[in-house]
Amino acid sequence: MTVFALRPDPGVPVPETAMVMAAGLGKRMRPLTATRPKPLVEVAGKALLDHALAHLRAAGVKRAVVNVHYLADALEAHLKNRDYGLEILISDERAQLMETGGGLVKALPLLGDRPFLSVNSDNLWIDGPVDSIRALAAAWDETRMDALLLLVPLARAHCHGGQGDFHLDAAGRIVGRRKPGRLAPFVWTGVQILHPRLITDAPEGPFSTNLFWNRAIEAGRAFGIVHGGLWFDVGTPRAIPVAEAMLADG
Q1: Is the pTM of this model over 0.90?
Q2: Selection from 151, 129, 125, 124 nearest residue 6 by Cα
Q3: Beta bridge partners of 21
Q4: What is the pLDDT, as a whole number, of residue 247?
């Protein structure tokens, strides 16, 4: 049995703060990222970053911490020129790109001491029967969890060239990572809830969120729920028309 996102209780609180990962170099998206940061690449007439922020606002998130590095001025100008219905805070990585784990550490003073959302700005998702962020919030249990990831079955990971990321048990606990040369049934969508207590004892400088995930998996405190809608890995220019065609078809 796999834990799918069920219809959430409308009274369940959603994390008020989200980290939006927007600092990457976007090398796989070249040449589109030669003159603009990857989060500002458009899909279906809207920047990837704006798609992510719209999801946050719809779910009831109050503030978004956006990290910036590559073409940071362009990202900040884009954010200042729009009303997202959210408080926007900047985690400035101009001096050094910190990668995902280091980015979380640098932004932690802005994220606060309560569980927060973390969203990659280069993945595009469409909610199914339920709002996926609200479903995450409904499934979150901080007495048992340090990390709760929104996952999609590998067979429904559109435009994704990987071989999967995680294995789940019947209770939704993440019990393993993909092994070399083998497939894993679930792909991370780029959306998760993390508890700040997991973001501790970190190395200095850039590093991956894998360090925190591995720690949570070993402790039995990493879980996942399965996304019931569409999801696209918009990592290359070729993925854009594929995603737009599927969106146009409903």
Answers
A1: yes
A2: 129
A3: 120
A4: 87
Residue 223 token pair: 């879980």
CB 58 within 8 A of CB 85: no
Cα radius of gyration rounded to whole Å, the chain: 17
Please report which confidence band the pLDDT of residue 114 belongs to, taking 50, 70 and 90 as the band edges.
very high
Q: How many helices (H) and strands (E) does the chain have?
A: 6, 13
The conformation of residue 183, written as its DSSP 8-state character, comes to -
pLDDT tens digits for 176-233?
A: 888 887 899 999 999 999 999 999 999 999 999 999 999 999 999 999 999 999 999 9
Residue pointed to by tokens 């920047």 = 47
Query: What are the two backbone dihedrals, phi and then psi, of residue 47, each rounded to the nearest 5 degrees?
Result: -60, 145
Of 56, 55, 39, which Cα lies nearest the Cα of 47?
Answer: 39
Residue 217 contacts residue 148 (beta carbons within 8 Å): no
Query: The tokens 């990493």 sit on which residue?
Result: 222
The separation between the first and the last C-alpha atoms of the chain, rounded to the nearest angstrom, is 28
